[in-house]
Amino acid sequence: MEPRPTLLVAEPEPLQALSVRKLVLETGKFNVLTAHSTREGVDIFHLFPNITAAILVGESEIDCDKVASAIKGATDKAPVIYLHASIGGRCTRADHDLSSHEPEALLELVRSLFGDPRQIESPSKCA
User: Fold this and answer.
1) Number of compact structural domains in the chain
2) Which sign does the torsion angle of CA 32, 43, 10, 66 carry?
3) By residue range, what is the domain housing residue 39?
4) Is 1 within a domain?
5) N or C, which end of the chain is more exposed by having fewer CB within 10 Å?
6) pLDDT in tens, 26-49
7) Residue 127 pLDDT > 50
8) Quick count: other Cβ atoms within 10 Å of Cβ 105?
9) What is the helix (H) or strand (E) element at residue 83, kind and residue range?
10) Domain-embedded: residue 110
11) Which pLDDT score, from 0 to 100, does residue 18 have?
12) Within a 13 Å sphere around the CA of 49, how many CA atoms are in the beta-carbon half?
């Protein structure tokens, strides 16, 4: 059985109690590793280099190009998805970009790239 995809999500610390984006991804059965700063994003990638993809939210706490460069310098297997709050937001090393205000669009993109983990067969239970 293939493991569920693991996503590194680098986003600012949420002002509310939880991140809607992270909640949507976890409800979609993706494994999520969370970073709240550029340094933490790079550190988590070095600890878990076999991530399936990185989702980087372009805000002041996260330097998308720096995190993406660390990932792209180590592997070409993990695409980078850049989420931007403004129309002019850019991350030159990103493979995909979306609005940070549309978590469902993010879930659809991730499923289109890696499949739907809900469809992975669960192991049979012992009788």
Assistant:
1) 1
2) negative
3) 6-119
4) no
5) C
6) 999 999 999 999 999 999 999 999
7) no
8) 12
9) strand 80-84
10) yes
11) 80
12) 8
